[in-house]
Structure to design on (929 residues):
């Protein structure tokens, strides 16, 4: 199994995301779930998919340390490559990991302006130029439409293909947008090209596609997550 | 000696290098009558400051070892530990802070908050040490204590408020205004020992009022009573302000700032008043211990002298009279002749001699009580050990010991030096847990590792001066390794017929990479192709081959050698013949097994002001480093990366110059990884040429 197999075997292929990202780019995605259901696991799988396509990813973790975020990547990549422990696979893993950088902020310390400053630092000095941004732990209770619009503009300014966010939903908050996007993102869903929602179902976990502009699948499609590994299962 | 614990202060004096900590301590000792003459750190009299007792400290004008002393100021017993400022000696600061109840953070009024002030502040926060700040050197050109106070807020995130205003600055510094009593204080006499209280100079009255208002507004948050008086615009009793400041300081929510110039003997006494008034006594601080009889459950020590004894050994020193162990008692009392238990070893120890330290001098005492910092003689223990009276089994949580970051190879110049070097290393490693030493069996050199170049330089110098052990310092060697990446077969016959009894042995089988472990030998011989007595000879032969790999002469690891066939001769086969056959078989299979060179990769963590994030990352990139991530903490950013050890030599110097000395790094071993092809080729070439020349 080589890098190509890892790319082609990825269950995310079913969404046709790569075509969307490579051709259209400049979209914002959102993974929503209640606390502890695996938003980071999904974001990491999306990030790894981008990295396997050769894109550089900046994983911004708000409120979590580097080690914890890195552990997600190590664990998920280990699961994805569990069947192959050859020397060449180890080289591939090292190559993939070179396409990732983690940046962590304290909740009180994060802002789009600060992120842009830090990113400029990396890009201008030719240290790291990501094309995909993962923002895990953004506070949507505080994040207004205007603030998220800023991210969208920032994405275009910085030539990013995609920004993925995670958002925590609450069982007792039943507000929803017309597209079915739950609170706290129900009033900002127009800014997102793609929204996924993780919902537990009996002994499995569903990954519902609530919105997916220009994707290979329609809204309403569900993928299944393996509850023990949180890996997206093949349809 | 006072018994009332509210009259005891255990404080540390910490700061960035050259902020004047030792000078300040010298003045404190003078004003508290512990010494009767002031000597400067680099004074022309050649005596040096009291607390810098080591010859090397006096020569270099830096503090290397933290020194403990004791004094009494206005009825309060103060145990003081003067700590080094240089980052390389950070363990001394860590050890002091672990056992202290409060601290004085000394800052230079010109340099402001510098890199080590940030480190020290972080260490104080880690150990929840309430602190007051003393902005020193207000007599220096460019002094600006208000700017430094602002930096304390911005850079360190402290709620810092000036308790005083300087009267004049730079050459014109003559005294300070106490914003609590609203009096001007001047320091007369040859050494500023006479404090004269006057009215505030007219020109400074408005400014003083303004600053007092600021101070009161901040401290009223800690006292409802004070707030009420302020709202009623009544006269404020200074005691009310002191109580509020104390409350804020103890809760770590306020940092009172004092100003002055220790060197010019200005305003040290009011700072000492601040120590008495605002810093905690042992009962104000909650110290936790782990109950070893109850699944290491945490409990707060009582500070009660009548309870069972608990004390922590926080520093060891090998002095003229044997091992000196500095201890802090947390509860109970200890008398000369008592027997205590070391919780770690379970051994009983009799306390023969007990003394109070005054730098390198000591004062014998008969007993010590809860909250005291004293030294014991002749107690064999390690730094961080907990002693108890035996009826309880507990351990104080251990101190944070940073891993060494730099290594050097040392070679004694002669046999005498070799013996003395061993003695010296034995002592230094016992005293300082950040200083480590080992013999690299691959290079046969003695490697010393520590926290930085200065750290090691000081030890090399101490070896020479204190032990007469002259050593040559070399560059450290990175310990590369070799490993195979594929399975390969071998079938080798060793045959030697040169008259007399010959040598014969054939070994066949395969070698393959071993996922876990260094080496494995598998005997899969059936039918006696190799007699049983020669199987271990084959194992020995393979093991001998592992010592030096064919690529760069490094140890070969992660190999499984399986033998499944062979042949022997009834007369010519022997242990040596089969060992040589196995060596030949290994050689034959090794190159076919696609060997690679592995290098140690270090997990590097660089911490510096955010403005230097780009430079730090750039420096890591240049060193073949893989940046894992960055972590923003206030105005500080931590960059974490995996970097090959071979690229890290000299990094401290590079980092210092890149970041104006404001960043620091730590590193620890992470894993062995393949070297890139270019490095691989270079190493092979170097090894081949060395072999040729040899």
């Amino acid at each position: 199994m080589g890098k190509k197999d890892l790319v082609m075997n990825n269950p995310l292929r079913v969404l046709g995301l790569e075509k969307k990202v490579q051709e259209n780019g400049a979209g914002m995605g959102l993974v929503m779930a209640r606390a502890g259901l695996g938003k980071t696991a999904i974001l990491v799988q999306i990030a790894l998919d981008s990295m396997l396509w050769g894109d550089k990813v900046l994983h911004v973790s708000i409120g979590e340390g580097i080690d914890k975020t890195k552990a997600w990547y190590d664990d998920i990549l280990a699961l994805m490559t569990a069947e192959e422990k050859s020397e060449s696979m180890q080289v591939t893993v090292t190559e993939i990991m070179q396409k990732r950088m983690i940046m962590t902020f304290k909740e009180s310390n994060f802002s789009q302006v600060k992120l842009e400053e830090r990113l400029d630092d990396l890009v201008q000095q030719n240290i790291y130029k990501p094309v995909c941004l993962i923002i895990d732990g953004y506070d949507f209770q505080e994040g207004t439409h205007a603030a998220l619009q800023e991210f969208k503009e920032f994405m275009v300014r910085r030539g990013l293909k995609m920004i993925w966010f995670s958002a925590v939903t609450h069982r007792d908050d039943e507000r929803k947008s017309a597209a079915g996007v739950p609170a706290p993102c129900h009033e900002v869903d127009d800014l997102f090209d793609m929204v996924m929602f993780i919902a537990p179902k009996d002994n499995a976990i569903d990954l519902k596609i609530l919105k997916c502009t220009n994707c290979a699948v329609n809204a309403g499609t569900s993928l299944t997550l393996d509850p023990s590994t949180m890996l997206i299962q093949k349809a | 000696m006072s018994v009332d614990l509210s009259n005891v202060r255990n404080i540390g004096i910490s700061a960035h290098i050259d902020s004047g900590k030792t000078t300040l301590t010298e003045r404190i000792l003078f004003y508290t009558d512990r010494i009767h003459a002031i000597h400067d750190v680099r004074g022309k009299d050649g005596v040096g400051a009291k607390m810098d007792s080591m010859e090397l400290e006096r020569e270099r004008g830096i503090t290397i070892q933290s020194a403990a002393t004791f004094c009494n100021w206005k009825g309060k017993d103060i145990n003081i530990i003067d700590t080094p400022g240089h980052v390389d000696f950070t363990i001394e600061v860590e050890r002091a802070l672990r056992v202290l109840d409060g601290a004085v953070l000394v800052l230079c009024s010109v340099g402001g908050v510098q890199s080590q002030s940030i480190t020290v502040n972080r260490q104080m926060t880690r150990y929840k040490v309430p602190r007051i700040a003393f902005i020193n050197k207000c007599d220096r050109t460019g002094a600006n204590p208000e700017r430094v106070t602002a930096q304390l807020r911005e850079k360190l995130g402290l709620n810092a408020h000036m308790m005083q205003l300087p009267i004049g600055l730079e050459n014109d510094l003559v005294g300070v205004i106490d914003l609590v009593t609203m009096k001007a204080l001047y320091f007369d006499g040859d050494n500023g020992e006479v404090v004269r209280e006057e009215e505030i100079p007219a020109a400074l009255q408005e400014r003083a009022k303004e600053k007092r208002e600021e101070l009161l507004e901040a401290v009223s948050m800690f006292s409802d009573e004070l707030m009420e008086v302020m709202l009623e615009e009544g006269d404020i009793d200074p005691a009310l302000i002191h109580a509020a400041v104390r409350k804020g300081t103890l809760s770590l929510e306020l940092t009172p700032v004092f100003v002055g110039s220790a060197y010019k003997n200005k305003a040290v006494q009011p700072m000492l008043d601040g120590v008495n008034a605002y810093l905690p006594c042992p009962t104000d601080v909650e110290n936790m211990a782990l109950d070893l009889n109850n699944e290491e459950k945490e409990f707060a020590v009582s500070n009660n002298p009548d309870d069972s004894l608990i004390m922590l050994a926080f520093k060891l020193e090998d002095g003229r009279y044997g091992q000196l162990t500095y201890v802090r008692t947390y509860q109970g009392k200890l008398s000369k002749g008592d027997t205590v238990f070391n919780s770690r070893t379970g051994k009983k120890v009799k306390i023969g001699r007990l003394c109070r330290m005054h730098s390198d001098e000591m004062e014998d005492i008969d007993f010590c009580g809860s909250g005291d910092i004293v030294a014991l003689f002749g107690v064999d223990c390690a730094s961080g050990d907990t002693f108890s009276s035996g009826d309880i089994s507990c351990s104080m949580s251990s101190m944070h010991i940073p891993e060494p970051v730099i290594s050097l190879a040392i070679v004694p110049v002669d046999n005498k030096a070799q013996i003395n070097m061993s003695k010296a290393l034995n002592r230094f490693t016992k005293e300082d847990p950040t200083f480590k030493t080992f013999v690299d069996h691959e290079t046969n050199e003695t490697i010393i590792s520590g926290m930085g170049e200065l750290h090691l330089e000081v030890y090399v110098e101490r070896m020479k001066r204190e032990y007469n052990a002259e050593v040559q310092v070399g560059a450290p060697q990175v310990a590369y390794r070799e490993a195979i990446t594929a399975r390969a077969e071998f079938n080798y016959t060793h045959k030697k017929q040169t008259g007399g009894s010959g040598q014969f042995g054939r070994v066949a089988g395969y070698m393959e990479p071993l996922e876990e472990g260094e080496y494995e030998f598998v005997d899969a011989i059936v039918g006696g192709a190799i007699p049983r007595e020669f199987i271990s000879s084959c194992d020995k032969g393979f093991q001998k081959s592992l010592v030096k790999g064919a690529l760069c002469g490094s140890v070969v690891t992660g190999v499984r050698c399986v033998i499944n066939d062979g042949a022997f001769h009834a007369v010519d086969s022997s242990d040596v013949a089969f060992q040589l056959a196995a060596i030949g078989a290994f050689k034959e299979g090794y190159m076919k097994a696609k060997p690679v060179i592995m290098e140690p990769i270090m997990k590097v963590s660089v911490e510096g002001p955010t403005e230097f994030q780009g430079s730090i990352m750039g420096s890591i990139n240049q060193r073949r480093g893989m940046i894992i991530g960055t972590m923003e903490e206030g105005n500080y950013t931590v960059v974490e990366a995996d970097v090959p050890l071979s690229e890290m030599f000299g990094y401290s110097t590079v980092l210092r110059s890149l970041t104006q000395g404001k960043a620091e790094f730590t590193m620890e071993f992470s894993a062995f990884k393949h070297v890139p092809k270019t490095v691989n080729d270079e190493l092979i070439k170097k090894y081949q040429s060395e072999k040729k020349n040899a």
Notes: Strands of chain A lie at 27-34, 57-62, 100-105, 132-136, 162-169, 194-201, 204-212, 222-225. The domain at 3-10+25-188 of chain A is CATH 3.40.50.300 (Rossmann fold). The helical segments of chain A are 3-8, 17-24, 39-52, 66-80, 87-97, 112-124, 145-157. The CA atoms of residues 2 and 105 of chain A lie 35 Å apart.
